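Researcher: Sequence recovery benchmark, item below. Answer with residues only.
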């Protein structure tokens, strides 16, 4: 059976498709080579489809500022080069605490919103201010949402109809795009006859805002109850969030989407927490996609899928041993009351 990996980038300005795709694959491949070298050949052999909507989001973002769009290629290359210097055992809180500007986002949010972000959630005002393309994504008067979902539809449909084993890796806004597309494949007549019974074997979300209440109320299906509320075509969902990533200030999706498990729409939802060691512009950047992609937890989740594992991954220590700290596991057949955060 063929294997397909779909990669979906996230928010912010992005360089060209070729540059962004190359950076993503280099980061992901480096993590596999570093931690699971026996899986490198299988990773290389898998079909990899990069879902790029940077041209659409760049055009929108350029209209929201008077400044010239940043030239990102060189900074991203340097970020990747720095990340590649770390060994598996160095992805620790101790290393993270030594990064320059580590408290930048904490100070910025505290000064601007006086802590309300962390008590009440990302309000629409906050999202519009800090994450304008995320707010614009659900603007029904704009075609932006449809335009950024469109590049995912064809490769996902092809992989499903071929009967491939499929894994999706999505970052930030890309996880909202993936969720809504999966929901549409589950429930809308234009896709449902062909795709409603096809499964994505593993969906990995990185730096995802899906646990935020404001984001959740705008997702496809949010206004209905029961099984129609959720996608039906994900076997395993692995969510990875970084300490101090303001987009994932609510790091666990398991408690908010546990009905997907209790309704037997998915087998498991697993939340893992990490330290993102990426630096951008001389500052620690815990939301940085390359820092997520190269991390041992991501490498572990991808390698497990390559192994054909049907067991959701647990957090791993720097030494490679499995551990429960920092993870939430929601599995089919467990009472929601039995699910709790460990950390």
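Model:
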């Amino acid at each position: 059976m063929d294997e397909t990996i779909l990669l979906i980038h996230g928010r912010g300005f992005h360089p060209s498709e070729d540059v962004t795709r190359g950076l993503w694959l280099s980061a992901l491949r480096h993590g596999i080579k570093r931690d699971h070298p026996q899986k490198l050949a299988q990773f290389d052999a898998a079909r990899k489809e990069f879902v790029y909507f940077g041209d659409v989001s760049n055009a929108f973002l350029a209209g929201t500022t008077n400044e010239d769009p940043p030239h990102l290629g060189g900074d991203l290359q340097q970020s990747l080069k720095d990340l590649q210097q770390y060994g598996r055992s160095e992805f620790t809180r101790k290393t993270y605490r030594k990064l320059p500007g580590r408290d930048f986002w904490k100070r910025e949010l505290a000064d601007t919103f006086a802590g309300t972000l962390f008590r009440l959630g990302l309000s629409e005002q906050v999202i519009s201010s800090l994450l304008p393309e995320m707010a614009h994504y659900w603007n029904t008067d704009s075609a932006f949402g449809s335009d950024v979902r469109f590049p995912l539809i064809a490769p996902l449909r092809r992989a499903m109809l071929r009967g491939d084993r499929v894994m999706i890796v999505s970052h930030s806004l890309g996880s909202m795009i993936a969720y809504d597309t999966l929901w549409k494949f589950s429930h809308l007549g234009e896709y449902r006859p062909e795709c409603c019974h096809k499964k994505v074997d593993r969906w990995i979300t990185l730096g995802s805002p899906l646990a935020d209440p404001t984001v959740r109320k705008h997702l496809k299906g949010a206004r209905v109850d029961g099984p129609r509320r959720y996608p039906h075509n994900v076997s395993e969902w692995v969510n990875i969030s970084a300490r101090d990533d303001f987009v994932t200030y609510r790091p666990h999706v398991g408690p908010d989407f546990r009905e997907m498990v209790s309704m037997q729409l998915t087998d498991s939802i697993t939340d893992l927490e990490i330290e993102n060691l990426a630096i951008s512009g001389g500052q620690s950047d815990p939301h940085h996609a390359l820092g997520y992609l190269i991390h041992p937890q991501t490498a572990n989740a991808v390698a497990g899928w390559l192994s054909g594992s049907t067991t959701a991954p647990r957090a791993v220590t720097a030494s490679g041993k499995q551990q429960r700290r920092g993870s939430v596991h929601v599995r089919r057949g467990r009472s929601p009351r039995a699910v709790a955060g460990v950390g």
